């Protein structure tokens, strides 16, 4: 059982009102879903990992799907939007003199967040790809301020001659593609997320997005 993986939920008070047994079930489910994937996980295995009877899962969460949603719904509706808003108010509101400064500030911040919450993020990302309703709800809950601040940063870096004169949407998709490949490799294919890998990724982005 790895209740430290629930820090994301603890920080926002999501576990308040839950019993120790219920928290143990959530923690075990995070472990099992992250290790095996939702489809290949069973409530029997989760109960064993949590040290409770399987009936305790059914009485609180109804079924395996209900247990999954107890994990991913708070991420979609509150936790991830709040984390994004914190990014907006922090790193995305900072003035950056160079493209390298901007990319280093944003990338390292998100890498730390990913490392600290990798199991929950892995479960959530897998379901976003699978579940259209969840995907649409996630998009609706995503703070518009995030896109506006990125747009502002891109325009500011362009004026300073630090960024290619591409449409901002193209710049954003290029960043998402290169960084996303590293993130997904770490989450789903056990590729190491070392500091050297992160820096190479940032250096690649600087090379691609710097005006020639």
UniProtKB/TrEMBL annotation:
<feature type="DNA-binding region" description="H-T-H motif">
    <location>
        <begin position="42"/>
        <end position="61"/>
    </location>
</feature>
<dbReference type="GO" id="GO:0006355">
    <property type="term" value="P:regulation of DNA-templated transcription"/>
</dbReference>
<protein>
    <submittedName>
        <fullName>TetR family transcriptional regulator</fullName>
    </submittedName>
</protein>
<keyword id="KW-0238">DNA-binding</keyword>
<dbReference type="InterPro" id="IPR036271">
    <property type="entry name" value="Tet_transcr_reg_TetR-rel_C_sf"/>
</dbReference>
<dbReference type="InterPro" id="IPR001647">
    <property type="entry name" value="HTH_TetR"/>
</dbReference>
<dbReference type="InterPro" id="IPR009057">
    <property type="entry name" value="Homeodomain-like_sf"/>
</dbReference>
<dbReference type="InterPro" id="IPR050109">
    <property type="entry name" value="HTH-type_TetR-like_transc_reg"/>
</dbReference>
<dbReference type="GO" id="GO:0003677">
    <property type="term" value="F:DNA binding"/>
</dbReference>
<feature type="domain" description="HTH tetR-type">
    <location>
        <begin position="19"/>
        <end position="79"/>
    </location>
</feature>
<dbReference type="Pfam" id="PF00440">
    <property type="entry name" value="TetR_N"/>
</dbReference>
């Amino acid at each position: 059982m790895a209740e430290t993986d629930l820090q994301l939920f603890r920080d926002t008070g999501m576990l308040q009102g839950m019993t120790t047994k219920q928290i143990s079930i959530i923690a075990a489910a995070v472990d099992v879903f992250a290790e095996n994937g939702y489809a290949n996980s069973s409530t029997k295995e989760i109960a064993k990992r949590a040290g409770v009877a399987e009936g305790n899962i059914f009485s609180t969460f109804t079924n395996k799907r209900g247990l999954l949603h107890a994990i991913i719904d708070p991420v979609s509706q509150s936790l991830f939007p709040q984390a994004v808003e914190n990014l907006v108010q922090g790193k995305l509101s900072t003035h950056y003199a160079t493209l390298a400064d901007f990319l280093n500030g944003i990338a390292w911040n998100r890498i730390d967040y990913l490392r600290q919450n990798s199991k929950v993020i892995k479960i959530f990302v897998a379901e976003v790809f699978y579940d259209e309703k969840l995907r649409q709800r996630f998009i609706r809950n995503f703070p518009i301020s995030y896109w506006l601040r990125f747009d502002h940063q891109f325009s500011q870096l362009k004026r300073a001659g630090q960024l290619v004169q591409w449409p901002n949407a193209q710049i954003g998709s290029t960043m998402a593609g290169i960084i996303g490949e590293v993130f997904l490799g770490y989450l789903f294919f056990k590729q190491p997320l070392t500091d050297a890998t992160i820096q190479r990724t940032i250096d690649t982005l600087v090379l691609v997005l710097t005006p020639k």
